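Weekly puzzle thread! Below is a chain. First person to post its structure in token form gets bragging rights.
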Amino acid sequence: MMKALYPGTFDPMTNGHLDIIERGSKMFKHLVVAIAENKRKKPLFSIEDRVEMAKESLKSLENVSVVPFSNLLIHFMKENNINIILRGLRAVSDFEFELQLALMNRKMYPECETVFLMPSSKYIFLSSSMIREIASLGGDVSCFVPYPVYLKIKEKFKTISQG
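Winning reply:
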């Protein structure tokens, strides 16, 4: 059992992410959930909010930690002595993109291995962008995200609609 990294923007974290994290926590001695700042994506939530929501959502998983990062993923991995990336695959379209990333990461960091997990079938359709869209239009996303994330989404869109 080794240490692995589950990177992403998690804007916001969904129950699909949570499913991968819970299952990954059983596969590895320690799982680091690394939340990318990635300002190019213009996230709905700040990096601080995303880290806070993830920590609150994952507090029951003792071998999981949550950290922000803003540098190249392989640099972060080397700095933290991690050589395994955990990634979720929802559909065939995800695979092509994820395969390219895995191959590029391995080219730049030969010790890097990528492990792919499919989410449980009940979460296969979930994406953060879909959650943001539904919430922005006033839809209820409570069954798609962990409760701490739902509260933050509710607060965010209440603020936006009043703004």
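Puzzle host: Confirmed. Bonus trivia for everyone else. The chain has a mean pLDDT of 93.
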